[in-house]
Each structure stands twice: as C-alpha cells, then as structure tokens.
Amino acid sequence: MKFGVVVFPGSNCDQDTLHALRDVLHQEAIFLWHKDHDLRGVDGIVLPGGFSYGDYLRSGAIARFSPLMQEVREFADRGGLVLGICNGFQVLLELGLLPGAMLRNKNLKFLCQYVHLRVENTVTRFTRRISPGRVLRIPIAHFDGNYFAPPETLREIEAGGQVVFRYVDAAGEATESANVNGSAGAIAGLINKQGNVLGMMPHPERASEALLGSEDGRLIFESLVDR
Amino acid sequence: MINPKLLSDHNLTAAEYERIVSLIGREPNLTELGIFSLMWSEHCSYKSSKAHLKKLPTRGKRVIQGPGENAGIIDIGDGRAVVFKIESHNHPSFIEPFQGAATGVGGILRDIFTMGARPIALMDSLRFGPLDQPRNRAIMDGVVAGIASYGNSIGVPTVGGEVYFHDVYSKNPLVNVFCLGLAEKEKIFYAKAEGVGNPVLYVGSKTGRDGIHGATMASAEFGKETEQKRPNVQVGDPFKEKLLLEACLEVMDKGLIVGIQDMGAAGLTCSTVEMPAKSGTGISINLDRVPQREEGMTPYEIMLSESQERMLLVARKEDVAEVQKVFAKWDLDAVVIGEVTAGRNLRVTFRGETVVDVPVDAVVNLCPVYSRPARRPARLKSLQKLVLPPPGDDFGSALLRVISSPTIADKEWVFRQYDHMVQTNTALLPGADAAVLRIKGQKRALAMTLDGNALYCFLDPRAGGAIAVAEACRNLACVGARPIGVTNCLNFGNPEKPEVMWQFKKVIEGMAEACRSFDIPVTGGNVSFYNDTEGISIHPTPVLGIVGLIEDTDRLVGPGFQQEGDAVVLLGENKEELGASEYLRVVHGLEKGRPPEIDLAREKAVHEVAIAAIGRGLVRSAHDLSEGGLAVCAAESCLIGGPGLGCVLDLEDDLRPDALLFGETQSRILLSASADLLPRLLELAAEKGVPARVIGRAGGKEMAVRLGGREVLRLSLERLFEAWKNSLPGALSVR
User: Fold this and answer.
1) Quick one: what percent of chain A has pLDDT higher than 90?
2) Residues on chain A bordering chain B, Cβ-to-Cβ distance under 8 angstroms
3) pTM (2 decimals)?
4) A13, A71, A86, A94: which is the annotated catalytic residue?
5) Which residues make Cβ contacts (< 8 Å) with residue B501, sequence separation at least 6?
C-alpha cells in the first residue's frame, strides 16, 4: 500500500510516522506537503502529531485551512482511509470529519506517558488485526486531549460503535485515574460512521518496535495494511 | 558624552573603557559602547574563567570541534558526528520562569542546528529552593512548563536530566539546558564569514526591543530591584524556531551557504563580529534592511536586541535566490542586510549614516583577561569537621525520609510534562541512570547524562569536580556506554569574590584530573558567574554533560531488578563515609564533613566491569550508588523500570550501620544477575581487580536488610513506592 504522511508547518511526528510505515511495516510511504493540491496516488493518508502552526489559536484550528485539506476531505468522502494521530486527530475534529472537540487535559498540564487502551471495536479497517478485549499499551503526548462532545453526540457515537479506543487501567477497567486527560467517556480514539476515518490521541508510531518499549501500536498499522 | 554612570549601566570598568578608547583610537559612541559592553561581558568573553578553563583536556581522536564554536563535535564513526552543548539560562528563569526557561531551550537548540545537526535530544539540570516556599514552587512550576512548551512544540524529546533542591537556589534557581544533535560529518557548518563580497542574510523573526542587555544582566549580581528586569527577558516562539530549523537544515543540505551563526545572547552584535573575526574579514550591514517589529528602534536597540529565533547567514551571490526560495517555502523571510568586506571592521549604517565602525578583533579577541585573586574560604575548615550523631536504630524511617527527599524522590511530575518520546529513539525512559537513544538503522545507541553534586563541591570543590565527572561516567557505565565527550556548565557566584574564584579553580582542577584519567575530551560548555542574590552566592555547581556510545542495543539494561531470585551483586567497596551525604542533610540536618574520597583508577575499573558485563549479557540490571547510598540504590532498583520486585540484602560489613546504608562512597554499582551467569560475572570482576560480591537476592514484595544476621530494615514496596512517588506531587500541590 502507498501511504501519504501530511506535513504541516509545525508537524513533528511526520518523520516518526514515515519511519514506522516504511521501515517497520515495509510499506511505500511519502510526505505530502500541506501547500500542494496533489495526493500523489496514495491509498491511505496519515495526519501526524505535532503542533501545526504552533497550535497558538486552538489545536489543529489553522491546519484545517491548508490547501491540501480540500483533497484530504474529498479523499475521505470517497471512502479513502485517513488516520489522524494526536494533532492529526485534532485537525480531523476541526475539519468536521469527526464529531466533538478537545479541551485541555484535566490536570492542566502536558502529559507524556504510557496509557492502556481497551479496543472497543475490532471490526474496523484500523483494528481488524486486534483480538476483541485486548488491552494495548501505547504512549500519549498532548496538552489538549480531553475529548468533549455534547451528550446527544456521545450517545450517538457510543450506540454506533464509533468509540474505538478507551483509556483503561492495565487490567482493562475504565477507572477515573486511568482516564488521565479527563475525556468524556474516556474516549481515546474515534471513527466516523462510514468507518474510513479514525482519530486517536495515543501515538501508535511510538509503540511499533520492541526497543522502544512496546509493539502494540504496530497492530493498528498492520490492520490498516492490505493483506 | 560617555560618563561614569553610563559605564556602570553597561557593567564596564573605567580601565576597560580606557582600553576600548585606545583600541579604536577614539571615544566610542553609545551604540559602539553597547557592542563592547555585550561582547566584553563575562557571559560572552569568559574574561574571568579563560585562564582556568585552559586546564581542561580538549583533545582526543574523536574530536572534530573542541571549545570555541557554537557547540562541540565528536566523531561517532560511519560518517556521522554528534554535536552537543550545555548552556545556562539562570538569571532569566528567576525573573520570568516560563519564558526564561523556554528561551533557554530555544537558544541551545539553535546552537546545535546552526552547525548542521538535527537536534535529537534535550536534557535539563534544574536547581530550585525548597518547595515549602510558595515562590520556589511557582518558579519550578514555571520553569518546567516553559521547558515543556518549547521542547514539546518543536519536537525534540527531553530525555533526562536532574533536579536538586537547596536553599541556596531560592533566589537564584539554576536552569542548565543540554542539547545533542546528529550530523553528517561532511555537512557540518561553522560560524564563518568567508569570501569578500558575499552577501550577509538575516533570517527568522523580526527584531524587537526584547532582551536588550540580557548578556550584561547575566553578568551581574541580583539585588532587590531584580524584579524590575522583567522586560530584559525574551519571549520564545517554538513554532517559528521549528520553521527556522527545517529551513536552515534544508539550505545546508543543499550546500547553499558558506557560514551561519545564530543570534543568541548579544543578538545581531555577536554574530556580526564573531563570524568575520573567525575568518579574518569584516562585515558591513545596513540596519534599515533589518526586519523590525517595532517602530522607531534606534541602532543601539537593533544591535543589542536579543529577540529570539533569528540567524545570520553568509551565502554566495549566485545562491541567494535559491536560499530565499527555501525560506519562503517555510514562510520565513531571508533578507540581505549587508556583505562580507576585506577591511577587518564591523561597519553599520543607519539612515545613510555610519553608526558603528569598530575592528572586530578588538571586540571579540581583545577583551581583558582577568586572573582574579583566589582564596580558600576561612569557614571551610570548620565545615569539613564532622562530629557524627549516634546512628539511631530506625533505619526504615530513615530510608523513607531520604527517599522522599525531593532531590531523590521520583521526578515523574517533571518528566511527564516533557515529550520524551518524540522522534522515536528513546530506548530508556527518564529515571534511568542515563538517557539512551538508538541510532535508527544501527545496533548502536547514544547515552547521555547530566550530573553534579553541589554540596560536595561546596565542602571540597576539587573532590566535587572530580566526582561529578566520575559519577556521570558511572551513570553511562550502568547502561553499558563508554564515554566519548564532555560538555559542562559551571555555575558559580561572583568571581570578584576570592572565595568564589578559589572554588572555581579547584572544581576545574578536579574535573580536569578526572577527564584526563577517563581519557575524555571536553568539547565546550558555558560559565555562569554572578549567581548571587543579595550578596549570597550559590554553592559551586558544575553540571557535567557526558555523552557515551553503546555498541549493541540488544544488551541494554536499566536500573530495575527483573527476575525473582536473581543475585544482587555489589561492585566496589563499602566505606565509612557519611560526610556531605543526603542522609546527614535530611535526617540529621547536617551539611558538613568531607565528601567521599575518589580513586579514579578504581572508578574506571568499576566502569569497565559494568560495561563488559552488560556487553556480554551477564547482568539483568545495573544501577549506580550515589545520593542516598546503598539503601536508596537498592530501593530504586526495586521501584524503577522493572516489574516491582523487592530484595533481601545480607551485609556483613563492620561499619556504622547508617554509614553502610546511606554513606555515599564512590565507585560502586549494584547489579543483578541470574544464578547461571553469576560465576562469569564474578570472574570478570576478579580479572579487572574490582571487588564484587553477592549481597542478596531480588524478589518478593519487600525490601529487607540484615546486618550481621540481624534485621535492621524491612519495608513493603508499597510504602517505599508511596514515599518515593508522592513526595514531589505532594509538595507541589500545596496552594
């Protein structure tokens, strides 16, 4: 498969994501420059983590206006696979490709740490290689990861199986302390109704090699890759 | 027009002024005076430290660049090099903790990428006053948030460092920032202004009035009016710097530039004099072309501004358009503001008039060098005399107190605010003996650590200097790394005080001896004097940043016990040394005695055993003994980086029990090994002449210590964990 990793000014996980896709997953992967209007024939798009445009206004708020976002939106509308990681998830929310918004973490501090995720939906194009009920250990690194949505939206996404990852403890239980950033419903990852656009705050590219401490994130990329 | 008041405002002495007049053959105008005052400040000129710094060894077969450039460079083979340096940002961080610390990070990052290296790791050495004072909590909160905001945004992981607490830092916190970058040996760039007629380009942020006199501020003591210096602190924009980083690396990669220097302390002044001074040329610039974000700035203000995120480039005429194209891609301006000239002067014009015309050599190289008087502090003798209190018998409580001392306690509160994983190279999480970063595509890895015990240096500066080097190398040995290069940040009080100068001299002697003994070159660093507030000097605080190489990441170990039943092995010997220990400070309120002795040959042999044992896969954990001694080291091995295994230690030493448990005797490492590999480990140590013995077993959910068969300590891991884990968050959550 051919993947495109979008580079915004201020993206800083673009190289990490390319490394995971190309050197660990052995897929074709290229950078897509945010000022272009060309997806260069990719089969899947990743919006990487970072601080696009410095995130000085609201995380992801400026990046949604980048020229390439028009093509990304059309690609998503046609059913193309789009994965947004961290800042990429925030951009997807700003683009309206996923519902809800991000607030500051509940402790009002940046959080970089491993978290445990329960995979709530294992029949998506992003999680199909993960066995049901599996708890993944993947790091987060964000200031604005406290997911928020109005109650009716929350009911809808829960009912529709759109919640893909939830913050839990090591045993897989959803506790208050495991929900480190205070997200509504402890939501860590969310998919659209059509099942082709996924946003997640944790960083699977940081957990794709044993040397770095976890390989759980690779399961997400492996699910994404055609076999 | 230049009067004594003006000179004192510029921190220049009458004698220095006379020298300026004779060097340029006339009275300087105000802008020229400002230029000299910046470049002749202690911060930029090293006028009090130069003579002593010469004692540090700077040569080695791996050294590509030693002191004198933006950063040191060490060859790591395979066509690659590491570029690293440490810098202080102490004074700004006291005045405005968040921005002071943030711009410290921004400054050191520029020092690294200006040489053509991509920054891959940051570390910080932080010293604060006790957290029971609200002001100190606010400073720590701001400094940590500031470091996080800059490093996280630009995407360079903050992978380690240290945090110490002591009252001497209450009004003078220390913020020392280390950065390391990876470069291709063939694509290293220097601060050169070569090629007469070559255009000089200004890139990055526009110039404002921020930070005027930052370097002179950092070269004077603080008094009560310090709070009013807030406007002297610059404001950082990590997003702009990220663009600058990418654009600079791109023009370098394309071979489009001749020389480059960042505008750090002393801003446009520093880069326009240092670059030609190194190349035997001059520079002529027109200030009307300098991008400005404020109206009506004077030449004085433009030349002295320390606005962040700016660089000066020299390129060939034919490449200017291409350079500008790359910067435009990253939404940055690149403006030609002047050219390299044959005359060896800096010539500055403003609205058609020449406002500066001074020889660059006079500014850069002819600052007076001082050999300031040094005198051993009179009270040292009584401080070194230690009358030990009775050892007591509740060693469990003593351990809980020592391990919850903020200096020793868990630092997760700090490092989880830092993105320590971005760039996906971090192989050991913060809290280990040293940070370890893999090199993508290789089996090898880089290890790095920051170290320095200021209380040791206060009580015996020479021993303290040597131990700082020894301990940093010991940290590296515990992850299986061999040291390859040193950078250092020397934080001291006012050098005009003979006692401070004596401390400085002695610390350097100790460091130099240890570096020579371990055969590691010092490639640069930073001296921060005038860390005095209201007449009180900080403890002499050298911070050593040492970088090492690991041959095989498959064999990497951390500090934590891994397997139930593994033998716990102590390398080195226990001695009765309690002077200057954290135990005496915390439990008995004593900051006295002499620091532990250091035998550098023994130290090196201990490192060799640890490195070889790790390299051959003989051990499953390694952790160095430092503050808190054996008891703290064993407790940390139970708590950090493993599954949470307890241990039972059986000791036979005929020493005071508190000295055995908490003494900080040097040259010791705690290892754990499986029963089948244990004989090979002991044999290896014997071969190298290093004492090694099994002192216990890992396992269970308790830590217990028996002394001569009698149990002297037993604690559940849960209690230890709580004391260690909750100390910092508890102290910082008080409102």
Assistant:
1) 98
2) 9-10, 12-13, 15-16, 19-20, 23, 35, 49-51, 53-56, 109-113, 139, 141, 143, 203, 205-206, 208-209, 211-213
3) 0.96
4) A86
5) B48, B372, B373, B374, B375, B495
